[in-house]
Design goal:
The complex is a heterodimer of chains A (161) and B (293). With 161 residues, chain A is an alpha+beta fold. Chain A has 6 helices and 5 strands. The longest helix of chain A is centred in the C-terminal third of the chain and has 18 residues, at 143-160. Chain B is 32% helix and 26% strand. Chain B contains 11 helices and 14 strands. The chains are: A alpha+beta (161), B alpha+beta (293).
Chain lengths: 161, 293
């Protein structure tokens, strides 16, 4: 039964069918099979948050999900969010405020930040920190990241007001 | 690292999962949310021969209030607990605790049944089960078993579940009047495992406790109900009474040492939590002189 399993899912709006071994995790499936390398693999045990993606609209650790578990689901990666323009303002705020240096954590950080902003339009800095606590950044010291998320929230709230 | 190779079976029902467990014995592992099992597999701490994926069993998901009992299906995710109006009104301790369980991406996948069966002594939900007097329901080839939370947890990652049993639900008694709760944990960073934590459930009677359950976690190989709480039930709470209870608590606890804290530091923090808890529950700031937040 370690034989490949057929799976079918939607990734960034496109139907994907594949044969995968059960041990293959979702992060490696996205990177190695679909060449969606924006999803980064850091710690591979759920601590660093670099591999954060959306499954059926909710953020998850793709290193802690098997590709076979995603059968029938809709997956969105950083490529999907970026190409659709959903987070273009957030990305611009990260750039403007130097909220990244090496950029390794950035895809996961953007996924987690956008997840917060979808649930809470006016988060305070404490709430931003709490929501991003599961995403490691070893360069910035987080201050600029919190600034970028906060200013994006304020700009979006201003637009919808 | 990556998980070692394993065979995969998607359970179609609880009885199907039990059949798979029975035929594969200890080589099989149940996969629910995977937020404890997958890290352990990726680190090659466990390498099951067969993964039985129960994630699709809708019959195991959901929160139901029936009379004085709140029943929570094993596959109910942390995020469901956090957002549930039933949990907020009938088991607010649990809602407060879940906010400290890891991070949003983990809470979207992790399940209550998985957390309890995994039985990490530093995790929040097992302690809440002790404080709330929960009954854990397991199903196996010999039928259903009801296990009190106090009997359920036996050691580090160890429970009374046998390899052919599946945790299907927990039941919480609810509806006691004048009940109050306290939850706090010391952690390096929001969402980390606790250095020491306390989940407490009380029944108040005027200025005193008619009941007080203090469940500590992160202080040993399993969550513990502090016997010292008995010293605070039905008596006037004075600083002296509280100091005696704290001394008894310190003697009873046998905390472990790790890279986060020494046993002495854990004992100290447990006493600080006791003072904060009693002061908060009774709204008596005078009792918290030594341990202000």
């Amino acid at each position: 039964m370690t034989a490949p399993v057929s799976i079918s899912m939607e990734v960034n709006g496109e139907r994907v069918e594949a044969q995968v071994t059960p041990r293959l995790n979702l992060a490696d499936f996205l990177r190695e099979h679909l060449q969606l390398t924006g999803t980064h693999v850091g710690c591979e045990h759920g601590v660093c948050g670099a591999c954060t993606v959306r499954v059926d609209g909710e953020i998850v650790r793709s290193c802690l999900m098997l590709a076979v578990q995603v059968d029938g689901a809709a997956v969105q990666t950083i490529e999907g969010l970026s190409d659709s323009g959903e987070i273009s303002d957030l990305q611009a705020a990260f750039r403007d405020r130097n909220a990244l240096q090496c950029g390794f954590c950035t895809p996961g950080m953007l996924m987690a930040a956008q997840d917060l902003l979808r649930q809470n339009q006016t988060p305070d800095r404490e709430q931003i920190r709490a929501h991003l606590a599961g995403n490691y950044c070893r360069c910035t010291g987080y201050q600029a990241i919190v600034d970028a998320v906060e200013s994006t929230a304020q700009a979006r709230a201003g637009r919808s007001a | 690292m990556k998980a070692a190779a394993f065979a995969y079976a998607r359970a179609t029902s609880v009885s199907n999962a039990l059949e798979l467990l029975a035929s594969h014995g200890e080589g099989a592992k149940l996969l629910s949310g995977g937020q404890s099992l997958m890290p352990a597999m990726n680190l090659r701490l466990v390498s099951p021969e067969l993964i039985i994926d129960i994630g699709g069993l809708a019959e195991l998901r959901g929160i139901l209030l029936s009379g004085q009992v709140l029943s929570i299906g094993a596959l109910t995710r942390h995020v469901d607990l956090l957002k549930s109006p039933e949990i907020a009104s009938h088991a607010p301790l649990l809602a407060a605790a879940v906010a400290h369980v890891a991070h949003p991406a983990i809470r979207n996948r992790g399940t209550i049944g998985g957390s309890l069966a995994h039985a990490d002594p530093a995790s929040e939900l097992p302690a809440c089960m002790l404080a709330l007097g929960a009954v854990i329901i397991a199903r196996g080839p010999r039928g259903e078993r009801r296990i009190s939370a106090e009997e359920f947890f036996t050691g580090i990652y160890e429970t009374t579940l046998s390899p052919d049993e599946l945790l299907v639900a927990v039941e919480l008694p609810v509806g006691r009047k004048d009940s109050a709760y306290f939850f706090h944990e010391f952690e390096r960073r929001h969402g980390d495992f606790a250095i020491v934590g306390l989940a407490a459930q009380a029944v108040l009677q005027g200025e005193t406790f008619a009941d007080l359950q203090l469940a500590y976690f992160g202080v040993g190989d399993k969550p513990v109900l502090a016997a010292a709480a008995q010293k605070l039930i039905g008596v006037a709470i004075t600083p002296v009474a509280l100091a005696e209870a704290a001394a008894a608590l310190g003697e009873a606890l046998a905390p472990h040492e790790d890279q986060q804290a020494t046993p002495a530091m854990r004992r100290h923090l447990a006493k600080v939590l006791l003072a904060r808890c009693v002061a908060k529950l009774l709204n008596r700031s005078d009792l918290n002189a030594g341990g202000a937040a």
